[in-house]
């Protein structure tokens, strides 16, 4: 059975990034928003871990600044939204065709 949520310690060990760095990135990147439990403890999803991995790669491997990483992540987020809109639009066109056949 695969876990859905991970603690900051688990993410820190898995990604080889100190917890204080992960918390700092949460402040700098709006895309990184882990679930907060009532006591304030963070729980990270696989999507959060994927975002942390992308940030780590862009900073430590590709050498981007925090501003550069922010721009890249925002651009990718916009591309994803546009793809979703186009997919919905295609789906809508298909539904119109189905409705036309029924009428």
Question: What is the gist of this entry?
Answer:
The chain has 103 residues and is mostly helical.
Q: Which terms would index this structure?
A:
2 strands, mainly alpha, Multidrug-efflux Transporter Regulator, Chain: A, Domain 2, 103 residues, globular, disordered C terminus, 69% helix, two-stranded antiparallel ribbon
Proportion of residues in β-strands: under 5%
Tally of individual helices: 4
Helix fraction by DSSP (H/I, runs of at least 4): 55-70%
What class do helices, strands and sheet pairing give? mainly alpha
Overall tally of structural domains = 1
Rounded Rg: 19 Å
| Secondary-structure element string | HHEEHH
What is the name of the CATH class? Answer: Mainly Alpha
The neighbouring-strand order within the major sheet is: 1-2
Shape: globular
CATH architecture: Orthogonal Bundle
CATH topology, what is it called? Answer: Multidrug-efflux Transporter Regulator, Chain: A, Domain 2
Question: Residue-averaged pLDDT, rounded?
Answer: 84
Largest sheet: 2 strands, antiparallel
